[in-house]
Please model this.
Amino acid sequence: MKPTAARLALALGALAAGSAAAQPAAPTWSIGVGTVASDSPYVGEGTRLRAFPFIGWEGERAYLRGLDLGLQLLDRGPWSLDVALSARLDGFEAKDLDAARLAAAGVDRARLDDRSDGVDASLSARWRGDAIELRAEARHDVSGASEGSELRLRAGWPLQAGAWRWTPYLQGSWLSSDLADYYYGVAADETTAGGAAYRADSAWVPEAGLGLNRGFRSGWFLLANLRYAALPDALADSPLLQDDAEAGLFLALGKGF
Model:
């Protein structure tokens, strides 16, 4: 799964968390299926479709929300503080990229290593106001894939219209040099003869999106997320990429019980 798909999949956990917060303290389960359509920025990837199951569980403090296994340390008034382990599905297989276009950029696909998915440990703080939600999250890879870090700062404006909850949001994500270079860099031994290595530096990635949460009396729910992220030059100049932006749509249908 490519970066757009991964981040939209993670949005499932965030949207599910919003609906779960209104549930009783007793453990509740939810199960469903999600579909991600993403326009990959990697050379030759094109549009990808991926379907996957979603399983959620809400305990008094612990929870499982899609790709997040977490524990709420604080829930006091508008403030909450969580720790979690989250899957990072930003990896790719070299065989999925276009060999000819990589070669033209000085990259030998036969020598290009696959980039692995990872597992992040995170600490997140959230403040909820009447008209805005603010969230700050620090993440670090603990799987040994990139061994990099990420900081996410997000502001959302939830709007309720009957049973429909719309949340337009803006987010800025800072990728450490280790994280950026692992997924966007090219090592010297991955280049063609005469090709040059590419070192991706740390970078801020701006993002705008719209989340949707719709619950039904029967226990069914609909989740959606539309997002667009502009890639800064530190990432967009990578010979592995063909675009300087990511866009994608996530849809999920499930049932709580």
The two ends are 29 Å apart (CA to CA). Helices lie at 3-20, 99-104, 177-184, 233-236.
